[in-house]
Amino acid sequence: MSTPDLPDPSASSDLPDPSDPPTLLFVGGARAVPISTAMVGEALDQARALGIRTHVVNQAAVLAATPQISAAADAVSAVDFTQPDQTVAWARDREAEGERFDAVFALQEMAQVSVAEVADALGVAGNPPDAVRRIRTKDQCRIALAAAGFPQPAVRLCADADAAEEFLAESAGPWVVKPRDAMGSIGVSLVRGAADLPAAIEALPSDAPFLVEEFVEGPEYSVEGVFLNGEPRVLAITAKEKAPPPFFVEVGHVLPAELPENERHEIVAHVCAALSTLELRAGAFHVELWRTVDGIVLGEVHGRFGGDWIHTMLQYAVPGLDVFGLVFDDLLGRNDGAQRALKPTRGAAVRYLIPPPGRVTAVEGWDDLLAHPAVLHAQLLIGPGDDIKPLRQSSDRVGFVVVGADDATLARKLADELVETVRFVVQDAAADRLPGLWSLT
Q: In this structure, are residues 376 and 312 in contact, taking their beta carbons and an 8 Å threshold?
């Protein structure tokens, strides 16, 4: 008779037990848009590979619109995650019924407060709810950073045009008008004087109080990272490219940013100090900033991964990185990632297609673009008969290409060249040629 295999007493206790897998509560699941379903799908795949059970909660209508996410999860429940109190009550009820949640996570911006509240209520790893509310409220985040000595643009919460005009009279322009709580460049406009205010206020998504802040001049970057053992770990710095004002839609990214090492170290130190000041300690982060003639000025701080396919670029630039799994392991106290070398050794770039407005009659060159060996991912969101809107917010972009290369310089060059090979034939437009990135008007 053979002797059964006995457990190795030297084996790590952090290894998952397949007979009792940890459960990840995935709050908010995916929005019914390609970038969101792709990110959440990858996150669920990485959780499964780590032996983690997943329970996705989302609004009932969105669950119905994202069946691929429901199919990939181990369990699904209809919960309005935009209501933190309801989400906490649901989680407590499930716990009382015997379900155990070992970690709580979200990719959606609007789910971050519920994640913090549920983690706090269940006693699992997470960020302090007050800290998450602070960074979700853009003006409060600026006030907290300024009080700690971080340079910040002057900002004012305004209830109406009169309050905005008063702020313009007291501060240096130009200015940016934007919602207090939104994403995707929705309702963000440049204002050069009081005459521009009516149009900027009209572009806001609601009648809620809005922000007016001083415009910051300088190249813009974002810093991508995760928390490991409670400490921020920067994975890469991304160079951001935007369409010209008056709107601020992102049209491309390059990762890692092509920066001298001393500037990279300065940015990393600045961002890590800010995250500590804001009392963030778990999950992921995506921090925007400008390099100005006077130094680094922090923009918005997010307790989540960046969008715009940054996760795809990260996982190419850092070979072997499963970026969502890295966070899941940390939330569960399985911290092997803290010992890994997590630095980009390759480059990646994303470029968005920005054709002129009008009705599409044909798109030429797309199949050739897809066949290029450097393409990591690409998607065309329009076709003949569709209308191209003027570029005002992220949802107006009609397609993109993500490329990978040996370094960031080559990736940027390849992405620029590939988007120029796609030709949109557009009715009722001044030109039917895709404009170059630097000639957008």
A: yes
Q: How far apart are CA 168 and CA 394, in angstroms?
A: 27
Which CATH number is associated with domain 349-439?
A: 3.30.470.20
Give every residue of the chain whose pLDDT is below 50, as ranges.
Answer: 1-16, 430-441
**Domains of the chain: which residue ranges?**
23-124, 154-214, 217-345, 349-439
What is the model's pLDDT at position 395? 84
**Topology classification of domain 217-345:** D-amino Acid Aminotransferase; Chain A, domain 1 (3.30.470)
- Burial class for 370, CB neighbours closer than 10 Å (0-12, 13-18, 19+): middle
Closest by alpha carbon to 26, among 83, 91, 97, 85?
91
**pLDDT given at position 433:** 38
* CA distances (Å), origin 213, targets 152, 164, 210, 218, 347: 10, 10, 10, 15, 34
* The CATH number of the domain covering residues in 23-124: 3.40.50.20
> For residue 187, what pLDDT is reported?
84
CA–CA distance, 292 with 297 (Å, rounded to integer): 7
Residue-level pLDDT at 429 = 53
How far is Cα 69 from Cα 42, in angstroms, rounded to an integer? Answer: 10
Q: At what angle do helices 129-136 and 112-122 cross, to 10 degrees?
A: 170
pLDDT score recorded for residue 338: 62
Confirm whether 217-345 and 349-439 share one CATH topology.
yes
* DSSP-assigned beta bridge partners for residue 388: 358
Measured distance CA(100)–CA(106) in Å, rounded: 17
The pLDDT of residue 393: 82
CATH number, span 154-214? 3.30.1490.20
Residues 6+ apart with CB under 8 A from 375: 369, 401, 402, 403, 418
Gap between the Cα atoms of 88 and 122, Å rounded: 9
DSSP secondary structure of 182-219 = --TTTT-EEESSGGGHHHHHHTSSSSS-EEEEE---S-
Q: What single-letter amino acid sits at 3? A: T
- Is residue 417 within 8 A of residue 362, CB to CB? The reply is no
pLDDT at residue 243 in the model: 83
Helix (H, G, I), strand (E, B) or coil at 329: helix
DSSP conformation class of 132: H
**pLDDT in the model for residue 244:** 78
